Amino acid sequence: MAFDLPSNIKAYGNPDDLAKDQDVDLVVCCTRVDLHYETIKPSLQQGKNVFVEWPLASNLSQALELTTLAKQTGAKTMIGLQGQASPIVNKVKSMIEQGVLGKVLSSSITGIGGVRSRDSISPGLKYFTERSVGGNVVTIGFGHMIDYVNFVLGEFTSFSSHLTIQRPKIAVIHDGKVEETVKTDVPDLIMLHGTLSSGIPLSASFRSGQPFKDDPGLVWNINGLAGEIKVQGSGPALQARDDDVKIWLHNFATDEVDEVKWESPFPELPGAARNVASLYEAFARGDEGGFPSFEDAVLRHRQIEELYASSEEGRRGVYV
Q1: By the 8 A CB rule, do 128 and 143 touch?
Q2: Which of 26, 237, 259, 278 has its CA 20 to 30 A from that of 88?
Q3: What's the CA gap between 113 and 209, in Å, rounded?
Q4: Confidence (pLDDT) at 130
Q5: Could you give the CA distance from residue 122 to residue 303 in angstroms, rounded to a whole number?
Q6: 27 phi and psi angles, rounded to 5 deg
Q7: pLDDT, mean over the chain
Q8: What digits encode the pLDDT tens for the residues 222-234?
Q9: Which of 230, 228, 221, 231 is CA-nearest to residue 252?
Q10: Could you read off the pLDDT of 89-119 as tens digits, one per residue?
Q11: Are 240 and 258 in contact (CB under 8 A)?
């Protein structure tokens, strides 16, 4: 297939050829999740710096292998958990650090989204119904959401989870017509509660599909002795879409509720690109605290493994 690329664009026939090119400084992997491992491994073996979209790999075992390999070859890594760069997430984090809530007492978050329909999916996302692939509403939709919550409030010391498949059959729809109906082994409802390292109790839930008509798809509350923060928007994907998201602060002393303004550092870019741009900027500056690495990805992969284990085995999940 010919793509009529300009002469200054170089194409490669396979990941090994790309990895061997000495003129390549940074390799970016944006393939389907189950191709991440084989796509990026040759570049890590050559010690190249890499950026991989989240999830890092299809499973924890592959993620650990890639992370170990990067350490061995000295490759610098970045993972696409760009919710950590969200101006909304960082505004909330700074408010808490500045003490506007006083002592933080608890937090709850409800997210509804991941896919655009409750009971159907496009052919391109059919793999979302196959847990073994590694890319689905649990790892991607819920994974991004819980990552920015933990980034702000801290990791769980332990948690209990309940995962269920409410709609086991999903219609694959193209151009308005059902091509086939497939059985899914991926949960579409995730509920967990536990205690964070700071002692704060956190309750989180995520449901695939659309919210109640005209209701927000994201409601995140953080309650403190002196006030409460509420983040609300059409969906939980703050890593990619935030134009309609608002932050409110309820001051208990005055009983006033004020909207807290926030600004994107890259307003000229499409919403999905802004937080990724912040990661690239931090990576280019060498600000290793300004972007998540493969080590952060492994932590989140461990959490998701324990999410399933807690639900399936009826025990507390521990991943840190």
Answers
A1: no
A2: 26
A3: 5
A4: 97
A5: 28
A6: -105, 130
A7: 96
A8: 999 999 999 999 9
A9: 228
A10: 999 999 999 999 999 999 999 999 988 888 9
A11: no
